[in-house]
């Protein structure tokens, strides 16, 4: 009689293959938007270190070239503006023709704007939502069509503490990230039966060049952020990269529709 272990292995052949290192991304192909700097760069680095081949995209070719030179031969770049929705299907088709089937999509590219709500124009609001929500959905749809057909894939969204609680002067950004959180739940409910997992990472206050500039120009905001962060320090971009590796790997194969705060406790701080 077959043992329960052998029956489980027969039902899930990948279990035996990944048992030695369930966090490995060896043989996987990942796309990271906005992968040339900051959090996106470190996500790309961590995925690559875990064994994945990574394609990063962004609008500035010189930045992408510098990133690829830093990250090594398993990382490639394509110049692309995610806000140009009409060409996202072509982007995904080109990646799959050139590099192979996409296993992982990380929707990292996004923009922010700090302005009192009463001063936010319709154009301001639409611009933020276009990049942070419309483009995320359009690219996700293009990748998910192929992943669902193959019955395999992982899609990660980058959310924010702005979707967890009210942060002043970021109404458009908070609206976009709150919508992304809702999209994760709906897509997970639709795609999980096809072995395509959808999750979000919600960074807390992460130390990047951009955040340092923003926080140093607003010391009161910086101090308030630290007061409600139990760990008492800013996170590092690689903290988000490590979370992305976990959620993209077989170690998280039973995790879908979730939003993971990587925030030093900020979301539960008082």
TrEMBL record:
Its EC number is 1.1.1.47. It comes from Hymenobacter perfusus. It is an enzyme of class 1 (oxidoreductase). The keyword Aminoacyl-tRNA synthetase does not apply. This is Glucose 1-dehydrogenase. InterPro entries: KR_dom, NAD(P)-bd_dom_sf, Sc_DH/Rdtase_CS, SDR_fam. Residues 28-204 form the Ketoreductase domain. One of its GO terms (biological process) is fatty acid elongation. The keyword Oxidoreductase applies. Keywords: Oxidoreductase. Belongs to the short-chain dehydrogenases/reductases (SDR) family. GO terms for molecular function: glucose 1-dehydrogenase [NAD(P)+] activity. PANTHER family: BLL7886 PROTEIN, SHORT-CHAIN DEHYDROGENASES/REDUCTASES FAMILY MEMBER.
């Amino acid at each position: 009689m077959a043992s329960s272990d052998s029956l489980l292995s027969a039902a899930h052949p990948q279990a035996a293959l990944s048992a030695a290192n369930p966090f490995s991304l060896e043989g996987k192909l990942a796309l990271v938007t906005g992968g040339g700097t900051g959090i996106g760069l470190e996500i790309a680095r961590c995925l690559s270190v875990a064994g994945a081949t990574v394609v990063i995209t962004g609008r500035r070719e010189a930045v992408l070239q510098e990133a690829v030179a830093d990250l090594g031969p398993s990382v490639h770049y394509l110049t692309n503006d995610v806000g140009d929705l009409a060409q996202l299907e072509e982007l995904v088709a080109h990646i799959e023709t050139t590099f192979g089937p996409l296993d992982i999509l990380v929707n990292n590219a996004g923009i922010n704007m700090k302005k009192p709500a009463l001063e936010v124009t319709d154009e301001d609001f639409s611009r933020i939502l276009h990049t942070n929500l419309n483009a995320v959905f359009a690219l996700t749809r293009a990748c998910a069509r192929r992943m669902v057909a193959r019955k395999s894939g992982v899609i990660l969204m980058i959310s924010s503490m702005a979707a967890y609680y009210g942060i002043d002067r970021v109404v458009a950004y908070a609206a976009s990230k709150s919508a992304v959180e809702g999209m994760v739940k709906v897509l997970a409910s639709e795609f999980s039966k096809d072995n395509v997992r959808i999750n979000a990472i919600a960074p807390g206050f992460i130390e990047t060049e951009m955040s340092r500039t923003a926080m140093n120009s607003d010391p009161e905001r910086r101090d308030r952020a630290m007061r409600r962060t139990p760990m008492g320090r800013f996170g590092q971009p690689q903290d988000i990269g490590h979370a992305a590796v976990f959620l993209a790997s077989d170690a998280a194969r039973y995790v879908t529709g979730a939003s993971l705060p990587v925030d030093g406790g900020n979301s539960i701080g008082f």
